[in-house]
């Protein structure tokens, strides 16, 4: 059977970065084996449904380039629909099947009655120890059960977990894991409103969609015992998928799983895209809006728990596909190292073509009212890409390439400038203005000639040129900046700088 995997998130809010890693591993596994990658929206818990969350999931996968072969928002197939609420009518027949086979039962207990038992008994749960003291089809005569069903009285269908047996689960990452049925509760499979729970819908859909491998987060491992019982109850154990439960993504420091609140706490994104919630506390900045390239985000996430072997760190998506294997996924949690994520983004920006960077920079330039022609943006990208970490840095750290200098490094100016230098500096400005060839090499040669003619040192002139053009000692080569800005803008900035330099010295003292 060909490989078929699914990414099955719930639309209960923004997609956490851990969910993105799950999607990535499923995608890589499917592509590695020439299989099918499916997106299924598991919205059986309608009480937690959040409007916009499904679109967010789809947009996140689109931004990252993890395109499903079929699924919600990506084209149908014979196994659709791919939103569980759209499949609601069919789940009842499967729940009834389990009742008829003796693996499930009707439970008529009211929420109030169950709550009273929980209040009266510590650690109360519905299981083999308590179900015969509850109101269900195991304790009521058959004719009474039928009467209630015919009358339309509310009920749920629960899985009947038999005690006294071991339930082995072979996990492709963790090896053999054995659960004791005595420790399991009788999970609700079908709710009173006819909506299936995650446990029933998950198993039925995986079977009908012919899923061969379930690759999901570690938090689902305890539920797998119930899922094995469901496969057995349906008689589907021979086609049960193989399981692989991924290690947790841990906080950057300290212990515990990385949470959505850690983004604000540590000043970093933990979601693929920004999400605006009802309150500031529920609103988050995403990797995309921070200025990550999708390829960098994927490369970083791929190595959070998976170890390819060898020293290679930089992987294009097609290289990840070729290198990926479940056997190289670790069991222990992987720490979310945001500094490493930034390093990846720097490397991907540096490796990007200038034309591609121009396309990515354009929205930021437009938002600030800067010029957006491709030729200029490409040249600006070439000057800045070795110096930035995120895409917004091109127009924030490199603002002086797009607008007159607004912020000067006055401390350095006061060290480098003496008003007595003004005549020589004005002569330099005139020399630059008279230079016909304004390409960086020719301009550099002419300025160095001027330095020699005036019996100066490069340190007497070049720092002042940089401060005049950029306001800071940081940034691209000074003559490259001048060539990009052009003669008119360069001369204007140099003349403005003379006034600024003098004022800085006067204000100092």
Describe this structure in words.
The structure is a single chain. The protein is mostly helical. The chain has 4 domains: 87-246, Glutamyl-tRNA Synthetase, Domain 3 (Glutamyl-tRNA Synthetase, domain 3, Alpha-Beta Complex); 262-351, Glutamyl-trna Synthetase, Domain 2 (Glutamyl-tRNA Synthetase, domain 2, Orthogonal Bundle); 353-398, Helicase, Ruva Protein, domain 3 (Orthogonal Bundle), CATH 1.10.8.70; 404-508, Arc Repressor Mutant, subunit A. Helix content is 45%, strand content 9%. It contains 21 helices and 12 strands. The chain has a 3-stranded parallel sheet. Strands 4-5-8 form a 3-stranded antiparallel sheet. It is elongated, with a radius of gyration of 32 Å.
Topology:
Blueprint: E1 4-7, H1 17-32, E2 36-39, H2 53-64, E3 70-71, H3 88-100, E4 104-107, H4 111-120, H5 142-151, E5 156-159, E6 166-171, E7 175-180, E8 188-190, H6 198-208, E9 213-217, H7 224-234, E10 242-246, E11 249-250, H8 262-266, H9 287-290, H10 294-302, H11 317-323, E12 334-335, H12 338-351, H13 354-367, H14 374-384, H15 393-396, H16 410-416, H17 422-433, H18 440-453, H19 458-470, H20 478-485, H21 487-508
Parallel strand pairs: 1-2, 2-3, 9-10, 11-12
Antiparallel strand pairs: 4-5, 5-8, 6-7
Helix pairs in contact: 1-11, 10-12, 13-14, 16-21, 17-21, 18-20, 19-21
